[in-house]
Amino acid sequence: MPAPPPSRPSPRRHHHHHHPASANPTRHRLHIARCFPDQLPKPPSPNPNPLLSLLTAVPDWADAVSERRIQEQRPLYTHEQWREHRSSLRHLRHLLSSLSSRVILSLVPPVSAFTAFAAAVATYNTLAPDYALTASSLPYQLTAPALALLLVFRTEASYARFDEGRKAWMRVLAGAAELAGMVMHLGGDERGDEEAGRGALLNYILAFPVALKCHITSNSNIRKDLQGLLSEDDLNVVLSSKHRPRCIIEFISQSLQMLDFEEHRRSVMESKLSYFLEGICVCEQIIGIPVPLSYTRLTSRFLVLWHLTLPIILWNECKWIVVPATFVSAASLFCIEEVGVLIEEPFPMLALDAQCKQLHDSMHDMMSVQDSVRKRLVAKTKARRRGRLPQNGWPSSKVEQVKVD
C-alpha cells in the first residue's frame, strides 16, 4: 500500500492580546504619521559680490527702515485722534511727514533709479540729437488703461485680504469675550478650588488672543506677553509646543471638562471654541497664501517697463522735462503698488496689542462690576423682604441708601 502523504503542518496562529483602553488609559496614545519629511538644511550661501552689495546698499537701507516701522505697535484711535485725522490741516501735516513715511522710504530705490535713467536718456539725446532715442506715444495711450486696471485690482485684492483678516480677528476677540463672560456668570460651586479653577480658565481664555497675535506676527515676545496671564509651568508647556494657540485651546477644553459646570452649559461653552479654531485657520491662510504671485509679478514688470520707456516716449514733446515727469509718474504709480503690498499682510497693520489689552482690561472691569452688582442686588433683596423699598425696588431715602450700601 502506498504510504499516506505527509500531513502539512497547520499554520501557526498568532494570538494578539488586545488591551482595552479602559483597562489602562495612561498607556493609550494616538499615533499620527508624518506626511512630509523635514526639510534638508540649505547649503551655505556664497560670499556676496562687492559690486552687488554696493548696488543694493540703498534698497537694503530702505527695507530695514521700513521693517522697523512695521514692527511698531499701533494704538487704537481715540476721539482726539479722530478729530486730528479729519482736520483740514491733515494735508499739510502729511506733506511735512513724508520723509518719515515707510511707504515713501520704500519708494526711494525704484524712483531714484528711474529718475536717474531718465536723466541719462535726456543727456544722451542732447549730446547725440541725430541718434536720439524717441518713439511714438500711441503705445502708451493704448496700454494706460491696462496699467490702471492692474493697479486697481491689486489694491482691491489687498484691501479685501485686510478686511478679511480684521473680521477674523474681531470674531476671535468676540468669542473670547463671550466665553469669558459665560465662565464668570455660569459658575456654580463657590469652593476655593473651584474659584481657582475658574480663574485659571479665564486666564487661558484671555491668553489665547495674545498667543494667536504672536503666532501671526513676526518678532513677537510671547514669553513677555503671556508672563502675567499664565503660571510658569503652564507657560513652559505653551512655549514647548510647536503650535501655541492650539495648545492654549487644549488648556481651555480640558479645564471645561474638569470644572463643575452643568452639562448643557459646558456644551455651549465648548461650542464657542469654534471661533478660536476658525480664527486660527483664517489667519494662517491669510499669512501663508498671498495674492497670486503671477499677478504681483505682472504688475511689477509692467511698471518697470512703463517707466524705462517713458523718457523715450516723452522726449519729443517734453525734452528735459522728462526727468521730473518720470519722477512724478514713478512716485505716484509705485506708491499705489506699494500700499497694496503693505496691506496685503493685514496683521502688522492692525492694533493687535492694544486690542488684546483692551479685552483684558474689559474683563477685569466686568469682574469688578459683577461683584458690585451682586452685592447691590443681594442688599436690595434683603431690604425688599423687610418691606423697606418702594415699588420701583430702590431706596427712596438717604438713610435707606446707607443701610443698603
- For the secondary structure, the number of strands is 0
Helix content: 55-70%
Tell me the structural class.
mainly alpha
Q: What is the count of DSSP helices, taking H or I runs of 4+ residues?
A: 16
Describe this structure in words.
There is one protein chain. With 405 residues, this protein is mainly alpha-helical. The chain has a domain at 102-364. The protein is 68% helix and 0% strand. The protein has 16 helices and no strands. It has helices at 50-55, 57-70, 79-85, 90-96, 102-127, 138-185, 192-216, 222-225, 232-240, 244-258, 263-271, 273-288, 293-318, 322-344, 352-385, 398-404. The longest helix is centred in the middle third of the chain and has 48 residues, at 138-185. The protein is elongated, with a radius of gyration of 33 Å. The chain starts with 49 loop residues before the first helix and ends with a helix.
